Amino acid sequence: MAPLKTLRLAVYSLLGSLGLALTASAQNTNADTNGAIPGFLQQGAHGFTQNQVNLDTAFWNGIERKVFTAANVDAIISSLAAGTISFDPITGLVSGSGLSSQLKEAYNAILRIYYVIYGLGDTNPSVQQQSSLYKQFLNQLSPSLYTTLPTILFNSANVQNTQIQQRLWAVRHGTTDGQSVVPVSDGGKKVMTPVAEPNQKWVTFVDGNGMWSQAQSVNNLPSYNSYAGGVQVGASYELCRNLSVGPYAGYQGTKVNFTGSNGGGSSATDNSVRYGLFSEYRQGGWYNDGIIGGAYNNVTVNHGISIAGNDSNFSNMTKGSVSGGEFDSMYGTGYEFKAGKLTFGPATSLQYTYMHLGGAQETGGSHILDQNIGSQSASSLLYTLGGQASYNIDLTQRVKLQPFLSFAWQHEFLQKDYGVNSSILGQNYNYQTTNAGRDQYIAGIGGNLLLTKSLSAYAVCNLINSDAQIFSQAISAGLNWKF
Q1: How confident is the model over 384-436, as pLDDT tens digits?
Q2: What is the C-alpha separation between 417 and 412, in angstroms, rounded?
Q3: Residue 413 half-sphere exposure, CB side, CA atoms within 13 Å?
Q4: What average pLDDT does this structure show over 259-269?
Q5: Phi, psi of 364, deg, nearest 5
Q6: For the purposes of burial, counting CB atoms within 10 Å of the CB of 312, is it exposed (0-12), middle (13-18) or buried (19 or more)?
Q7: Closest listed residue to residue 369, CA positions, set 300, 304, 430, 299
Q8: The pLDDT value given to residue 69
Q9: Within 10 A of 342 (CB to CB), how many other CB atoms are there?
Q10: Whether pLDDT at 335 is above 90
């Protein structure tokens, strides 16, 4: 017997045994492949995705096998007879101490979901309304928000690599070639005399960054707003002429709020520790940058469901935690032409990122909606092609300002769809992710302020626009100190 029909017959038989009446609109309880009546989806049901069909099958099979068993029905009847539980005569919701809290919670949750979709009393929604509400419920119940995490974290890695490259630009342009000169007295006349520069092999830095991203809903994924901030420190040493190598480490915190009809009030918080090595080799106008590193991500997820319809509503919030490692690498190169105080040239890079996130066991919500979310592994190969330009402005004899502009096209080669094996009420199902966006554009504007021969400050703002309807803004600012 179909699971939702089992639910209805169980409710009516239990209420009927007490002589109570539950008014409900008569609904067609047969599978309708044109409208796909909720709870009776079939393979290829019109208007429903395979992800929705898979989750529907697992959810209602789990309810039949975990909630509406003969033992549970007998327990309800026995508790009714003993007077230790009672039903609300209008809604049929269970209260009292005669049943386990899990059984009462599960039974009441099913009814509330049912009334949102089908209505209560004289409410008589159309099949199309039922299907629309049920799709919304399945989209919120699905692990789609977990599968957006790799894209969000890949975006953070991309922004970090871009900011390291821009900081290396600030170091390059803060380097003074040749010798300094100072005025000295010669017979009452001032002449310029060269002064030897100190041998500065170390460059240390500290910077802070902030990032804001907004993504629109694509392929039933929830839209989201994300906010990130962090700090990074590092140092490089000139191993030989024009070749510098050094470590970096930092912390990045990210908060994500999932919005729209499929968001369900969900949110996620990521705490990441990022670390690695960076290097640069330059010769004349040619430069080569490299990064190799990793990160540890720990994400706390609040998975919400919030649906309303037919004068009823249902809400639920579960919690899950996922963590995992990340490998980051990047090679970039470019050439800088000089024309007076103007420096400009092309730049290109290739960055590879691999990420693994472990599974999550959700807790804290209605027992029937707690899920076991499977682990994920994803890879990104991002190619960047663009150019940049800067200009020297002498503010004083010692202080210089170097405004900076950049623009680049980025193409994703690797990030593709994959399956996430999860379970609900002990029933396994597969959730298939969607392909990530392939192209995006990144524009940067900022500047470098040379305060002394050893100290400089820089700030850059990057704007990123993706064909996956993701828009990001990132700001980085910091200090470089040479010695």
Answers
A1: 999 999 999 999 888 999 999 999 999 999 988 899 999 999 999 999 998 88
A2: 13
A3: 9
A4: 92
A5: 95, -15
A6: buried
A7: 304
A8: 81
A9: 11
A10: yes
Residue 352: Cβ-neighbour burial (10 angstroms; 0-12, 13-18, 19+)? middle
pLDDT > 90: what percent of the chain?
Answer: 52
Overall residue count recorded for the chain in this entry: 483
Amino acid at 133: L
Residues 6+ apart with CB under 8 A from 189: none
- Nearest Cα to 474, choosing from 302, 227, 291? 227
Q: Which region among 87-96, 222-231, 244-253, 455-464 has the lowest average model confidence (pLDDT)? A: 87-96
What are the percentages of helix, strand and coil residues in the chain, rounded to 5? 25, 50, 30
CA atoms within 13 A on the CB side of 91: 17
Between CA 26 and CA 12 the distance in angstroms is 13
Pick from 258, 264, 246, 253: which is nearest to 231 by CA? 253
Q: What torsion do the CA atoms of 328, 293, 199, 179 make, to the nearest 10 degrees?
A: 10
Q: Which residues of 121-133 are buried (b: 16+ CB within 10 A; e: fewer)?
A: eebebeeebbbbb
pLDDT of 196 over the 60 cut? no
Q: What is the pLDDT of residue 45?
A: 55
Six token digits for residue 35:
């409208």
Q: Which helix (H) or strand (E) holds 407?
A: strand 400-412
- Residues 380, 357: Cα–Cα separation, whole Å: 14
The secondary structure of residue 415, as a DSSP letter, is -
Beta bridge partners of 235: 204
Question: What single-letter amino acid sits at 457?
Answer: A
pTM over 0.85: no
Task: Assess contact for 329 and 337: CB atoms under 8 A.
Answer: no
Residue type, 98: G
By the 10 Å C-beta count (0-12 exposed, 13-18 middle, 19+ buried), 447 is classed as middle
Q: Which carries the bigger pLDDT value, residue 3 or residue 123?
A: 123
Strand partners, 161: none
Instruction: Return the bridge partners of 234, or none.
Output: 205, 248
Tokens found for residue 153: 């974290």
**pLDDT band at residue 186 under the 50/70/90 scheme:** low
Looking at residue 363, the DSSP 8-state letter turns out to be B
Distance between CA 273 and CA 251 in Å, rounded? 5
**pLDDT number for residue 190:** 52
Residue with tokens 């202080």: 399
